[in-house]
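forwarding from the other thread:

> can someone predict this with adenosine-5'-triphosphate?

sure thing
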Amino acid sequence: MFSKNRVPGDSHDAPNPRRWRVPMFHIPLWAYIPWLAVKGLWWLILGLGAALYYLAKFYWLSAPLGLLAYLTVAYGWYWATAAAVFATGMLGVWWWRRRDTFQRWLGWFYIAKWRHYLRYRPLWQPTIANIGLATSFGGERFYPSLLNVRHDGRCDVVTARMLPGQHPHDWAEAAPRFAHTFKALSCTAIESPKADRVALRFRLVDTLAATIPPFPVPATVDTRRLPVAVDEDGMLFTVSLVGHVLIAGRTGSGKGSAVWSIVSAIANGITSGLLHVHAFDPKGGMEFAYGQELFRAFHYDGPHEMAGALEDLAKVVIQRANRYRGMARDHTATTDEPTIVILIDEFASLTAYVPDKKLKERLNHAMAEILTKGRAVGVHVIAALQDPRKEILSYRNLFATRIALALNEESEVDMVLGENAVRNGAASHLISEHQPGVGYVMLDGRNRPGRVRFPYHDDNDIRAMAATYGTTLGVAQ
Ligand SMILES: Nc1ncnc2c1ncn2[C@@H]1O[C@H](COP(=O)(O)OP(=O)(O)OP(=O)(O)O)[C@@H](O)[C@H]1O
């Protein structure tokens, strides 16, 4: 046993082609009978050990069945049946009256067991073999062991023990194949605290399928924690304006809903004058016009005018930075020195698509000043963008918060969210066109991307918000 390397996985019970030459001994009958008795005893002990092991392992089945068997033997089948009917009835009442606790404490546990043994286990080894995660060693074939399945009503989390030499990244690459095989909406491979384990999270129900109505406007504005979307667990996703926000998505992906959700979260600051929004709409004002009363300035008249406006804002940044030097590390908004939010639709139209070289240089210079120095002096940028390939890379790291709505290609997701985002579960390239407003972001406290959905503000919602929270100072250009 010490001479052979053992692979900690499940070996396949294939017929062994090796032939052994067994030595022949002649045992006298007086020794053979006791030998048979010892052998029989040994098998009995082994059998009892195995029975106890399986009874303990499948306690969730053996305990109720054992109790039923005991009741039948002790009190007869009549009382055992009555007890079973009574227990089933009580479980039914629990399910009916307190479904959440029933599911959390009992229902999901049995669903997980059922899915473990009837869904995942039967297909596990063929799937692993076809995906290429099994290995051959010393003439034997080994498969990563399926250890456990948990269920929480929306997802199955399948824990497996990896084979030596494997990394969760290998499993992440195979995640779409797992999802397809086990009929899940998606699958994400998550690293486990134990080095040799990996958890596959299968999403079975889409909690973000329905359109979300606009959130109520918060009474106080905390620019570091603006409630703007909902994640898959139904929790609020908050965004920090400090450090700038980049929203990327192909046409029709719902960039507007992300932008208006942020504007709605700061609307009370606009009314109180602690927050000024300067909107830049290179599409000629089509995107932001409905809410123009919310803006201190609204620019939509071509790149020349926008370059001038951006340079003015860059000057404000530099003046504030000079004044704050040695005095304050952070900006506190007052009505004299408000937080400035610069809202830009089609960011690439201002930084990449401008044909005039000199103008492009002016725009990029002003943008770089604002993005690098604005954070500490209360000037924040929210930029929306359709095509993340175009010269955005140089700016990407200046945006602390990046939101990837539906995108066309896998490579674009990594460009927006950062290297390995797709491998860690960000699947913006797979978001359906029927799910505008859905996207991937880095969630607080988790080192992997999460899926969120932004509420939808239709034109009437935006007009109503502008009428309620806009100021008479809101000007059209
Ligand atoms: N959060 C959302 N929930 C449900 N539907 C939405 C949501 N956001 C947008 N939509 C729908 O998708 C359509 C396109 O949205 P939107 O105009 O915001 O996309 P976009 O990414 O800004 O597109 P473009 O780049 O072409 O302007 C909307 O008209 C609306 O019908």
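The first helix runs from residue 29 to 57. thats all i got for now
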